[in-house]
């Protein structure tokens, strides 16, 4: 990739972010009557459900706040971030201090605070909002949530857990992945001497429990000794989740490794290098890419046996957004053209299939052939997060490549 190509790509990603994605959410998502954000938006921005999901509230607060802090101090972005932060301050917390999963439009709780990721995304949103607003309550609440997440992470659902853990004490990769991202969000709030061990712990769990070099796969579920649960859980692969995790790991190591308290060599388990981690991306995409229709499968079974997930063959927005970031970062780190080639292949398919030139934003759910399976642009799980975050990461990586290229 030449300096000129990197510059052109950076401009393209910034234009997609600021010309298509952000305006859609600015126009349709803010609930001017009841506060907070609605995320259930059809193709043209029509609201089809007014319930409010705390994942989406926290993510959107983070996104508007991060735009304001890193892209430009646009008053509308600050106002939009305040709009969400004030709403969750008023209605988000349950009596035990954890955050509900969902509320009705006016803020009445609908689903109990069973999911730690409600806390994680509200924490990220308030941490970022505190940086741009100067609101002490937001920073204080973000730090309280940070401590609470560290308490809950080994038993994230607590009394709401359905599984009988003692009989099959498997571990999912999601907590470690999210901790890596939170280490970035909290970099200005929590000392690096505290963040570095957290990154090391997450890296160890990912690389020694979930990443299996012998089988050339990144498994979603594992036991504490690195072995696999029997059956479908033990064979489950999620290519997008694996690539997002590897990206966030490389990003955390690169970022914290520049600090004197946390050199990169001390953040990774012995013998691990950035290039070695990048190799796992190649195994992941080779298993996850649909050679017939293109795009990345949502789920795969390691032995190509049946899966219980009906959406396995679908192509999802966040998978492709995260995959682009992963391969472009791997290319910047290694200079290896295999990563550049995969980045270009994924970007071309993504640009051709997910983007909606008529109404802006991206479709979220495509069938295997790459046609929209649902018209929605937002819902219970899709909101203002993966696409804008990825586009910001991609533009930043392109900027770094511009500086590094002769």
Compact description:
The chain has about 400 residues and is mainly α. About 55% of the residues lie in helices and about 5% in strands. The protein contains 14 helices and 13 strands.
List the SSEs and their pairings.
Blueprint: H1 3-28, E1 40-41, E2 47-49, E3 52-53, H2 54-70, H3 75-91, E4 102-103, E5 109-111, H4 116-133, H5 136-152, E6 171-172, H6 174-185, H7 192-210, E7 211-212, E8 217-218, E9 221-222, H8 232-235, E10 236-237, H9 239-256, H10 264-267, H11 274-288, E11 300-301, E12 315-316, H12 317-334, H13 337-353, E13 365-366, H14 386-404
Antiparallel strand pairs: 1-2, 3-4, 4-5, 6-9, 7-8, 10-11, 12-13
Helix pairs in contact: 1-14, 2-3, 2-4, 3-4, 4-5, 6-7, 6-9, 7-9, 9-11, 9-12, 11-12, 12-13, 12-14
Which structural traits does this protein have?
Glycosyltransferase, 406 residues, two-stranded antiparallel ribbon, three-stranded antiparallel beta sheet, 54% helix, mainly alpha
Q: What does the model show?
A:
- With 406 residues, the protein is mainly alpha-helical.
- The protein has a domain at 30-154: Glycosyltransferase (Alpha/alpha barrel), CATH 1.50.10.20.
- It contains 14 helices and 13 strands.
- The chain is globular and about 55 Å long.
